[in-house]
Amino acid sequence: MKNTALTFRQAKEKGEKLTMLTCYDYSTAKLMDESGVNSLLVGDSLGMVMMGYENTLAVTMEDMIHHTKCVSRGAKNALVIGDMPFLSYHTSVYDAVVNAGRLIKEGGAQAVKLEGGADMAETVAAIVRAQIPVCGHIGLTPQSINAFGGFKVQGKTVEAAQKLLDDAKRLEDAGCFAVVLECIPELPARQITESLSIPTVGIGAGKYCDGQVLVYQDMLGLYSDVTPKFVRKFADCGTVMREAFRRYIEAVNEGSFPSAEHTFRFEGTVSARVS
Ligand SMILES: Nc1nc(=O)c2c([nH]1)NC[C@@H]1CN(c3ccc(C(=O)N[C@@H](CCC(=O)O)C(=O)O)cc3)CN21
Ligand SMILES: CC(C)C(=O)C(=O)O
Ligand SMILES: [Mg+2]
């Protein structure tokens, strides 16, 4: 059955965990959907893992729409969430609603995600008024890299943790159906999770969150430019892929590929050569 913003809220009421993975293309979306993940996040992390940028700031609405289209076509049951890229919602509430709408209308997503807390509450409320479900995102918000001075753990002091809890509550009040907690210690993540009626989805936020999300290239061992402490490699697909590419090159070079089974049959006689 199709996961929706509503089933996210209900999962928390039932005490069921939620799973989310980032996804950027059709074939991977199908594989993930078939494995039963609740949600596919077309993250602006695609700037790093798909495009090779050092951070997420250069990602455009066109990049996000392109990849969201690809993922939507492959997701039968998973909720597709389109990530709003840097500067697509900071310039005005109007811009935010228009750009959120594009991820839905053009990208085929069922929800959007944006970074920020109390400062974005008004923006979130306006998008929700347009009937677009919004997922919040607080803690390490990568689009704030220049303000933070790097990808750094947030909410380490009592004051910072209190601010995160206030932000989370403002997002819930503004109408978010879920909130991502990125790179914060276990205790504040647990307190936020217990204080909200909407689910928290953690990435580097410990085990007490209602759900978890990982960048799929990280969990498959396909990307190593940044290696956050919170990543578990569930498979070493990088090694599998490198080895397959090497075997292909070797087979072509030695002439064992393509063999007869991969070659089309000619129907004329061997002597009737084309000239
Ligand atoms: N491939 C990938 N995986 C991600 O999880 C991810 C992205 N890209 N791009 C967008 C953001 C950036 N993220 C990051 C990137 C680096 C760290 C990192 O290196 N953190 C340090 C903590 C530093 C500190 O102690 O403050 C670590 O050791 O985990 C964390 C999150 C998470 N997101
Ligand atoms: C890491 C997740 C939460 C994200 O925002 C992204 O992939 O862009
Ligand atoms: Mg993101």
UniProtKB/TrEMBL annotation:
<feature type="binding site">
    <location>
        <begin position="44"/>
        <end position="45"/>
    </location>
    <ligand>
        <name>3-methyl-2-oxobutanoate</name>
    </ligand>
</feature>
<keyword id="KW-0963">Cytoplasm</keyword>
<feature type="binding site">
    <location>
        <position position="44"/>
    </location>
    <ligand>
        <name>Mg(2+)</name>
    </ligand>
</feature>
<dbReference type="GO" id="GO:0008168">
    <property type="term" value="F:methyltransferase activity"/>
</dbReference>
<keyword id="KW-0566">Pantothenate biosynthesis</keyword>
<comment type="function">
    <text>Catalyzes the reversible reaction in which hydroxymethyl group from 5,10-methylenetetrahydrofolate is transferred onto alpha-ketoisovalerate to form ketopantoate.</text>
</comment>
<feature type="active site" description="Proton acceptor">
    <location>
        <position position="182"/>
    </location>
</feature>
<dbReference type="Pfam" id="PF02548">
    <property type="entry name" value="Pantoate_transf"/>
</dbReference>
<keyword id="KW-0808">Transferase</keyword>
<keyword id="KW-0489">Methyltransferase</keyword>
<dbReference type="GO" id="GO:0032259">
    <property type="term" value="P:methylation"/>
</dbReference>
<dbReference type="GO" id="GO:0000287">
    <property type="term" value="F:magnesium ion binding"/>
</dbReference>
<dbReference type="InterPro" id="IPR003700">
    <property type="entry name" value="Pantoate_hydroxy_MeTrfase"/>
</dbReference>
<dbReference type="GO" id="GO:0015940">
    <property type="term" value="P:pantothenate biosynthetic process"/>
</dbReference>
<protein>
    <recommendedName>
        <fullName>3-methyl-2-oxobutanoate hydroxymethyltransferase</fullName>
        <ecNumber>2.1.2.11</ecNumber>
    </recommendedName>
</protein>
<feature type="binding site">
    <location>
        <position position="83"/>
    </location>
    <ligand>
        <name>Mg(2+)</name>
    </ligand>
</feature>
<dbReference type="GO" id="GO:0005737">
    <property type="term" value="C:cytoplasm"/>
</dbReference>
<dbReference type="InterPro" id="IPR040442">
    <property type="entry name" value="Pyrv_kinase-like_dom_sf"/>
</dbReference>
<dbReference type="InterPro" id="IPR015813">
    <property type="entry name" value="Pyrv/PenolPyrv_kinase-like_dom"/>
</dbReference>
<comment type="similarity">
    <text>Belongs to the PanB family.</text>
</comment>
<feature type="binding site">
    <location>
        <position position="83"/>
    </location>
    <ligand>
        <name>3-methyl-2-oxobutanoate</name>
    </ligand>
</feature>
<dbReference type="GO" id="GO:0003864">
    <property type="term" value="F:3-methyl-2-oxobutanoate hydroxymethyltransferase activity"/>
</dbReference>
<comment type="subunit">
    <text>Homodecamer; pentamer of dimers.</text>
</comment>
<feature type="binding site">
    <location>
        <position position="113"/>
    </location>
    <ligand>
        <name>3-methyl-2-oxobutanoate</name>
    </ligand>
</feature>
<keyword id="KW-0460">Magnesium</keyword>
<keyword id="KW-0479">Metal-binding</keyword>
<comment type="pathway">
    <text>Cofactor biosynthesis; (R)-pantothenate biosynthesis; (R)-pantoate from 3-methyl-2-oxobutanoate: step 1/2.</text>
</comment>
<feature type="binding site">
    <location>
        <position position="115"/>
    </location>
    <ligand>
        <name>Mg(2+)</name>
    </ligand>
</feature>
